Each structure stands twice: as structure tokens, then as C-alpha cells.
Amino acid sequence: ELGAGNGKGYSVNVPLGPYTDDATYAWAFEQVVPPMLSAFKPDVLVTQLGMDTHYNDPLTHGGMTVEGHAHIVKRLAEMTEKWVALGGGGYDLAAVARGWALDYGVMAGIDLPNEIPRKFREQYGIPQLRDGSSPIDAATRQQARAFAEATVAKVKRLIFPMHGIA
């Protein structure tokens, strides 16, 4: 989807394959988002910080950890002064709660501890804030990376020229 009419080139979608992990997601993000923000020069950045990219999400088959998601949030914070960050998306409620907590910590400049308070740990069965690593195997990571590379190349070929990005 590229947009239509006067909006052509202003709808920038970067579809990623199943089980896209932190490293591949961050790579695709860096390839597309900073150059597009530089070209768009938005007055305000509005983002939806859905956690459906998480490896435990039962619907989306993402491969990210909450730490990888927080890294993207940190990068967004570095790229803008005015920002509206919205929640939305994510079907593993424990991952959503942990991810948004970590994201909020990033936005507030607070390094949250990994330990979950005992009351919440026992009540919700959440052992810690961070995931540590994604359980995605190497072959699946390679497939997701190849898909991401093809997608990013297509975005650069179709959309970047519309905005004078080389």
C-alpha cells in the first residue's frame, strides 16, 4: 500500500515475515523509519505501540522480545520531540503488560528493574519483566531476515524516490 492521490507515498508499510526477531526488526526499522521521518519532518509523531510482535503472541507469529520492542521505543524517542504514543495490539496479556511497562520506563527515562514485585508475580504468574531472548531458531531467523531484506528493498525502490531519498 502506497497511498493514493495526494497521499501517494505517504502510506509506508513494511510487512515483515513470521517470527521476525529483535535484530531483524531493528534493522528494517533503521533502514526505513529514520530516512522517512527526516523526509516527512512531522510536527508530531503518533505511534501505536502494539505488542503483537512478541514471540508469545498467539495470533501474529512475531518473534520479538519486550526488550526489542523497548529498543524501538527508545529509537523513536531519540528521533522526535513531540510524540503521542498509543497502545493497541497484542494478545498475550502478560507480554503486553511487561512490554508497555518497559516502554513507559524508556519514555520516562527510568530503567525498571527486572524483578516483578512478589504480589504481582504471584497473582499473575509473571516471573520477570524482561524476556532475555527469543526462542526463534537460526533457520527461521534467516528466513525472516531474507523476507525483511526483500521488503525493505521494495520500500526503498517504490517510496524513497517520491521523497528525494537516495
Summarize this, please?
The protein contains 5 helices and 2 strands. By secondary structure, the protein is mainly α.
What does this protein look like?
The chain has 166 residues and is mainly alpha-helical. It is globular and about 55 Å long. The chain has helices at residues 22-40, 66-79, 93-108, 118-124, 138-158; strands at 45-48, 83-86. Helix 1 runs parallel beside helix 2 (66-79), helix 1 packs parallel to helix 5 (138-158) and helix 2 (66-79) packs parallel to helix 3. 46% of the residues lie in helices and 5% in strands. It has five helices and two strands; from the N terminus they run H-E-H-E-H-H-H. Helix 2 (66-79) links the parallel strand 1 (45-48) and strand 2. A two-stranded parallel ribbon has the order 1-2.
Mean pLDDT: 94
Which regions are unreliable across 5 or more consecutive residues at pLDDT < 50?
none
* N- and C-termini, Cα separation: 20 Å
Structural class: mainly alpha
Total number of helices? 5
Radius of gyration (CA) equals 17 Å
Question: What's the helical proportion of residues?
Answer: 40-55%
Strand content range: under 5%
What would you call the shape?
globular
Spatially, the strands of the biggest sheet line up as: 1-2
Please write out the topology:
Elements (H helix, E strand, L loop, with lengths): L21 H19 L4 E4 L17 H14 L3 E4 L6 H16 L9 H7 L13 H21 L8
